[in-house]
Design brief:
Blueprint (H helix, E strand, L loop, with lengths): L2 H19 L4 H20 L27 H13 L3 H12 L4 H5 L6 E4 L2 E4 L17 H14 L9 H14 L4 H8 L17 H11 L2
Antiparallel strand pairs: 1-2
Helix pairs in contact: 1-2, 3-4, 4-7, 7-8
Length: 221
């Protein structure tokens, strides 16, 4: 029997285990299985294996559009009020970085005070973008702690959602900037979802949409 063929049932069992035992969401199952699939694909490219046993393993379908929704404008205002009144200054920093700067949770939790600086009269925060390994040490807040804290803050603010989590604030950041009239192209660049290399003005901090977002939230519109 082909030894590679024997591995396929194990890989299928791994997918079922994630779905039925661990109860992972389809996107989580697909993302985790892609690690194994990528490993075997590399082995094929390098000539180590003739074919990948993961090639025909069924994965859960993942919708093209993310089902994650952000907070509404009023919910976001309530959350900002709650963190301003919180005795823990880290609460405001967390929500500001996620909801007003649009950072990913690992970017926010990986930021140090030394990463805060000034550039041509603008306060800037240097963050580790996607693909850069960030290691949390000591008592640094990680993404799990950030999720738990945000859930508590949403409850304090009277926001009724099934489960508040950091990515909701990144979604809120994008939708609120669009509501504030920020150009879609600038929103994509600021959220770092698009390839901005051909935009020659992308380094102009004077046109940063974050200023428009902050003014929009401060106006109470």
């Amino acid at each position: 029997m082909d030894p590679l063929a024997a591995r396929r049932p194990l890989l299928e069992l791994y997918v079922r285990w994630m779905q039925e035992i661990r109860r992972f969401k389809p996107s989580t199952v697909s993302r985790r299985f892609s690690v194994a699939a990528g490993f075997y694909r590399t082995c094929v490219l390098d000539g180590v294996l003739e074919h990948s046993p993961a090639e025909n393993v069924r994965r859960p379908s993942v919708p093209a559009e993310s089902p994650t929704l952000g907070f509404t404008h009023l919910q976001f205002e309530a959350l900002l009020t709650a963190v301003r009144q919180s005795p823990n200054s880290f609460d405001f920093a967390l929500v500001a970085m996620l909801g007003l700067l649009g950072l990913r949770v690992f970017e926010a939790t990986g930021a140090d005070i030394a990463d805060l600086g000034e550039d041509h009269g603008h306060w800037v925060l240097h963050v580790c973008d996607k693909g850069t390994k960030v290691v949390n040490r000591g008592t640094r807040m990680d993404r799990h702690a950030a999720t738990r804290r945000l859930h508590q803050l949403a409850s304090t603010a009277g926001i009724r959602v099934t489960r508040a989590h950091p990515h909701m604030l990144r979604r809120t950041f994008v939708t609120t900037m669009l509501d504030a009239g920020v150009d879609l192209r600038d929103v994509q660049i600021t959220a770092r979802h698009a390839d901005p290399r051909y935009d020659q003005a992308r380094q102009n901090l004077d046109r940063q949409p974050n200023y428009i977002l902050a003014a929009f939230m401060a106006s109470g519109t």
